[in-house]
Amino acid sequence: MAYVELTLWPACVRTHALPDQIAAAAQAGFSSLAINPATYHAAVSSGLSPQDILRIADYNGVRFSWVDAVSGWLPIRYPADSPELKGFLDYDLKLAFEIADILGAEAILAIGCFAEGALPLSQQIDCFGELCREAKVRNLRVGLEFIPTWGIGNLKSAWRIASAVDAQNGGYVVDTWHFFRSNSDPNLLQQIPDDRIFAVQVADAASDCKVRSLLDDSLNFRKLPGDGALPLARLLDTITTKGTKDFGPEVFSIELDQVSAREAAILCANSMRAILRRDDLPNHASAMGTDDVSDQTRRQT
């Protein structure tokens, strides 16, 4: 495998303030951190200026790569049946572009949080095309992510949108949890042009959903890569043959929420190193004071 860009997705450290997320990314050896509008808004509301955020990132040697979970490109920003997500998702697209411009992010991650059937496919295509055009003016790429609980529910749905638009700066972000939980087609994955899978978010899972809903499973019970039952290595091998270089953990987990940002980031970095089978990716067990710290912390989670 060629050079890999290791991105820390904020789900892994979601209970921690942005400065702690930045420091954790640096301590665990991630080269970049994705940021979502809700976290940015909270940081600014706490009294940090955008320049303060940049100074903290520069001091830690971490850059911002993605503006994560942007739903404002569609007329429905958050799911009507999950109003608790309003505070996380209900942000205007202008804020996403502002964050990218101020913090130097290179890409926007676009999601659709509408109920299946709530928006016609033609409208989804038109809106994604407009998003890609606006992003191109700002030299940004747009990665479309499918999420099985909502209207763009599988790879086929995302394919219909992105392939119809066929923008050079438009592509896909593949979340491994979503891929398997949506029963997406591996053969369709093979058909995606080699330069259009912009990033891969990696999480593991139990063999089946044993909680009250798929959304609850997704937002609270993901597992570290390699700790579950998903055939991640096989999927990642397929994707890496397409030249994708941006990989990172996206582990929504109430257990991971219980440890410090630093511990969470180190656990995630070590699990990514193992699942990608790369000796040159960061292994920071010794940074915590003991060679057994990953096992010790894993038992806590």
What does this entry look like structurally?
There is one protein chain. The longest helix is centred in the middle third of the chain and has 17 residues, at 121-137. The protein has 13 helices and eight strands. It is 42% helix and 13% strand. It has an eight-stranded parallel beta barrel, surrounded by six helices. The chain has helices at residues 18-28, 37-45, 50-60, 86-89, 93-103, 121-137, 155-165, 176-181, 186-191, 214-220, 232-240, 261-276, 293-300, and strands at residues 5-8, 32-35, 63-70, 107-110, 141-144, 170-175, 197-202, 246-249. Residues 284-301 have low confidence and may be disordered. By secondary structure, it is an alpha/beta fold. It has one domain (5-300): Divalent-metal-dependent TIM barrel enzymes (TIM Barrel, Alpha-Beta Barrel).
CATH superfamily: Divalent-metal-dependent TIM barrel enzymes
What is the CATH topology? Answer: TIM Barrel
Strand order of the largest sheet: 1-2-3-4-5-6-7-8
Roughly how many Å is the radius of gyration?
18 Å
Main sheet characteristics: 8 strands, parallel, barrel
Number of H/I helices? 13
The dominant shape is globular
Helix-strand category? alpha/beta
Number of domains: 1
Average pLDDT number: 91
- At CATH level 2, the architecture is Alpha-Beta Barrel
- Order of secondary-structure elements: EHEHHEHHEHEHEHHEHHEHH
Helix content: 40-55%
